[in-house]
């Protein structure tokens, strides 16, 4: 994870090279932009617009107002489908977060809104213990299913190692979280047939283990490192592969194209540097 201690250690070790004082880093953490990407997708018969929002981290540093702004921006893109890359939550889940659910229910896309789980979602359910989330909860799995039901009521379908046919030419699959779930990309893609395939998985470290080629994989988790320095890049990336999957376009097994989003929320510290939060819009065309 991107931890407060690791970021502070890196900043102090660099002689305070980052000018995060005066609220500069905080301000960067709450501004966001839209990145646009045009790609051909094998198997697609007609164009598709897909909006990807990931790592909302609603809770500790992110409130309903931030989520509302992201939803407004996503709706303005008039996407055919909205995909959420996990880490929706970053708070001990004592009750369903009404503000988050209220805002996600406003997302509009004719083909639907789909999400996967991330590691911070599992922490919020009580799957693992931390200073922020408290002790492990015996009922964490029941909390996960309860929240999935609440999301469904808000129009968001959670894909946990499963997929859906959205059009005759399009399959969308989603996997469980790599760190605290049991991700099964083969199950998520089962039934795709000759359709164009989109796979959402929270953690890009799953990319080398893809069981088959995928048209496009969308990931989050890394936040692009969240705090970056000129030339040096990210101070810390929560990946076993270091900077390899920090952000942007990367390649997985079977020469699969994948995009790792910088995400929208904040983890560890409420700051970013040279790493603007993003909503990614993919304008996909027949190959």
From TrEMBL:
GO cellular component: membrane
Gene source species: Deinococcus soli (ex Cha et al. 2016)
Coiled-coil ranges per UniProt: none
Alphabetical GO biological process terms: lipid A biosynthetic process
Keywords: Hydrolase, Metal-binding
Annotated CDD domains: MPP_YkuE_C
Domain called Calcineurin-like phosphoesterase: residue spans: 49-224
Name this polypeptide is given: Metallophosphoesterase
InterPro entries linked: Calcineurin-like_PHP (IPR004843), Metallo-depent_PP-like (IPR029052), Metallophosphoesterase_sf (IPR051158), TAT_signal (IPR006311)
GO molecular function: metal ion binding; UDP-2,3-diacylglucosamine hydrolase activity
